[in-house]
């Protein structure tokens, strides 16, 4: 059996431009990671090992899948239109003028007792505006003499209050950002309570509308337009994010940079973290009855594979977990949940005692445990949630047990990595050697059935996008989802999911690192921006990025990314599930390679009309495709 050592990250979350500048390449800010990262039972961050599916490989040919669904891509056939910009190139006195011909016409105003979050946002705004215009706007306190008639009001200033605009407050589930022009005032403000960075996000939204874009921590993938005159007409944004928490390895390993992608939100704990609370070395000597009875023994050190379980029907175990969680929440009031999911693994090593087996299936056991913990925890923390996972042996709905209203079920996308979920395809069907499950219905139908049978009040999503974890060759091969990413997000939101953990982003375990932003930004950025803004499709997000990154070649580069995304969407391989991708040749078939090659040639024909930096980006992207073709084996 071929096994995969894929590390599951169990992480606590907590324009008329004459040219373009790009920022200096900041160092990785991995030191900002919260020190309370969750781990597996052996102290490492892990996810289930898997095997190659049994039986002959599918052809990977496009056409019609086994359910009769067409594999024709469903995206638009024309590039999305460019979003309306508030920037005016020939301003009049009725416009909000920040600089004119390089001369400063506005200042930045902050509260006299500004918080660090507000001050940092104001300084960021000042720095980027200097990159754009070459001019430095003053930052002044709201109780000082203000040198300019046009005022950019950052945070809860006295002037903002006079305009009748209050800073949004409250936590959790209260994230909100306001970007609004009123006469000679531009208000940039957001909820900064607890974990929130609303004022910084307001600055981001404003700068993006000036033409800025950040697609990676390297200077090459950051766009700041050069304009001597910056002026606006109308601007009125009142925004709440689509999902209350937006998490991936980009957020965890590049937390400061991830602010440009609007990541964060409510502080979350994700993964299999019961062993963090009840480590076997500490508790097995004194409470062996808290560990699973397997083969007549309660011995977590003598199991049939790496993973071991607890006796989830034991109420004393649940009481101890609740006690430990009260201590966690006492020490970290911003934490909104805790992941008490079972240890990683499959159907092996679950408790065989009479109390556990009488409950029903493995999902019944885990729900019983979560309900017992909730019963104790709600005495002090009724508004926190307890997160368990739905995957592998706990993928299927319970037979008997309903979920306590405190329980949050995080549904892992245990189906094809490629096919859109809204097509409701049965991929795979029958027995699967990776998950050890036998599938008779689609992921979507199982998802809905679980919610209905267990009466699940709180729902979240685990999305496996770590495409190179099982097949390292994918680390250097482009993979773009485009509209599929945002279609999946809409489906999850429509079915009550409140937050998403994307198992993607730079991680050595997944054979991707800092340099991977160049090949992966169309995947990582689109999903991040989609979590923030429900109004955007994946293609709209990509088109906006192409316009900023590639200038006159924007349409052609968009066509290239769409050709990649269409290839992914059209793949109907039965050889992919969870974190295990299809072979590259099943996505990029010989016919699809021809389509993508044609898109590349069309884009190369525009290289003479772009700037040197834009050309460098294009050459970088095409080098990945050239390399990919060398790795594809038909």
Q: Summed up, what is this model?
A:
The chain has 634 residues and is of the alpha/beta class. It is 31% helix and 13% strand. The two termini are 25 Å apart.
N→C terminal distance = 25 Å
Question: Major sheet, described briefly?
Answer: 7 strands, mixed
Q: Find the count of extended strands (DSSP E, 2+ residues).
A: 21
Approximately what portion of the residues adopt beta-strand conformation? Answer: 5-15%
Radius of gyration, Cα only, in angstroms?
A: 26 Å
Shape: globular
- Secondary structural class: alpha/beta
Low-confidence spans: 1-70
Strand order across the largest sheet = 14-13-21-20-17-16-15
Mean pLDDT: 89
Number of H/I helices: 18
Helix coverage percent:
25-40%
List the helices and strands and how they pair.
Layout: E1 20-21, E2 96-100, E3 103-104, E4 106-110, H1 116-133, E5 139-141, E6 150-154, H2 158-162, E7 177-182, E8 185-190, H3 198-209, E9 213-214, E10 222-225, E11 230-232, E12 236-239, E13 245-247, H4 249-253, H5 255-258, E14 264-265, H6 274-277, H7 280-283, H8 315-331, E15 337-339, H9 354-357, H10 362-377, E16 385-390, E17 407-412, E18 430-431, E19 438-439, H11 443-454, E20 458-464, H12 483-494, E21 497-503, H13 517-532, H14 538-550, H15 554-570, H16 584-587, H17 590-604, H18 612-631
């Amino acid at each position: 059996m071929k096994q995969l050592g894929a590390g599951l990250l169990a992480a606590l979350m907590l324009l008329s431009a004459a040219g373009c500048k790009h920022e200096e390449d900041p160092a990785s800010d991995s030191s900002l990671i919260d020190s309370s990262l969750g781990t597996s039972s052996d102290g490492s961050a892990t996810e289930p090992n898997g095997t190659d599916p049994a039986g002959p490989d599918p052809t990977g040919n496009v056409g019609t899948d086994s359910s009769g669904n067409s594999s024709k891509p469903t995206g638009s056939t024309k590039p999305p239109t460019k979003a309306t910009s508030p920037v005016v190139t020939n301003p009049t006195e009725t416009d909000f003028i920040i600089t004119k011909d390089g001369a400063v016409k506005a200042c930045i105003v902050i509260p006299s007792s500004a918080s660090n979050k507000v001050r940092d946002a104001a300084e960021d705004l000042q720095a980027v505006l200097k990159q754009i215009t070459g001019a430095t706007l003053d930052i002044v306190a709201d109780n000082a003499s203000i040198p300019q008639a046009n005022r950019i009001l950052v945070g809860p200033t006295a002037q903002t209050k006079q305009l009748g605009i209050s800073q949004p407050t409250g936590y959790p589930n209260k994230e909100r950002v306001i970007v609004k022009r009123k006469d000679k005032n531009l208000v940039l403000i957001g909820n900064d309570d607890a974990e929130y960075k609303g004022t910084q996000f307001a600055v981001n939204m404003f700068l993006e509308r000036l033409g800025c874009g950040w697609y990676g921590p390297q200077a090459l993938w950051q766009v700041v337009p050069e304009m001597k005159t910056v002026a606006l007409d109308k601007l009125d944004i009142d925004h709440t994010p689509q999902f209350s928490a937006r998490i991936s390895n980009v957020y965890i390993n590049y937390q400061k940079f991830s602010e440009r992608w609007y990541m964060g939100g409510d502080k979350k704990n994700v993964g299999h973290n019961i062993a963090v609370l009840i480590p076997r070395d500490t508790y097995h000597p004194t409470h062996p009855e808290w560990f699973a009875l397997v083969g007549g023994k309660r011995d977590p050190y003598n199991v049939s594979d790496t993973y071991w379980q607890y006796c989830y029907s034991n109420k004393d175990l649940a009481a101890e977990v609740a006690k430990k969680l009260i201590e966690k929440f006492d020490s970290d009031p911003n934490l909104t949940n805790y992941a008490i999911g079972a240890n990683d693994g499959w159907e092996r090593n679950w408790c065989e005692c009479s109390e556990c087996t009488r409950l029903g299936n493995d999902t019944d056991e885990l729900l019983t445990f979560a309900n017992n913990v909730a019963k104790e925890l709600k005495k002090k923390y009724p508004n926190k949630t307890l997160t368990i996972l739905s995957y592998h042996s706990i993928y299927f709905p319970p037979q008997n047990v309903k979920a306590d209203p405190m329980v949050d079920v995080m549904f892992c996308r245990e189906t094809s990595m490629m096919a859109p979920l809204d097509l409701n395809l049965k991929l795979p069907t029958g027995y699967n050697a990776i998950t050890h499950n036998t599938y008779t219905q689609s992921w979507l139908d199982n998802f809905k059935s679980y919610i209905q049978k267990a009466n699940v009040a709180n729902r979240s999503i685990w999305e496996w996008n770590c495409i190179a974890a099982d097949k390292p060759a994918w680390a250097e091969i482009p993979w773009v989802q485009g509209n599929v990413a945002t279609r999946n997000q809409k489906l999850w939101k429509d079915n009550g999911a409140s937050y998403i953990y994307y198992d993607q982003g730079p991680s050595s375990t997944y054979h991707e690192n800092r340099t991977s932003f160049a090949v992966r930004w169309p995947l990582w950025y689109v999903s991040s921006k989609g979590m923030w803004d429900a109004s955007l499709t994946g293609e709209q997000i990509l088109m906006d990025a192409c316009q900023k990154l590639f200038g006159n070649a924007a349409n052609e580069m968009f066509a290239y990314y769409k050709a990649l995304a269409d290839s992914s969407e059209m793949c109907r391989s039965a050889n992919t599930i969870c974190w295990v991708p299809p072979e590259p040749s099943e996505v990029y078939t010989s016919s699809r390679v021809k389509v993508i090659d044609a898109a590349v040639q069309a884009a190369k024909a525009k290289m003479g009309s772009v700037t040197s930096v834009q050309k460098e980006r294009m050459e970088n992207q095409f080098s990945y495709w050239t390399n990919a073709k060398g790795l594809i084996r038909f």
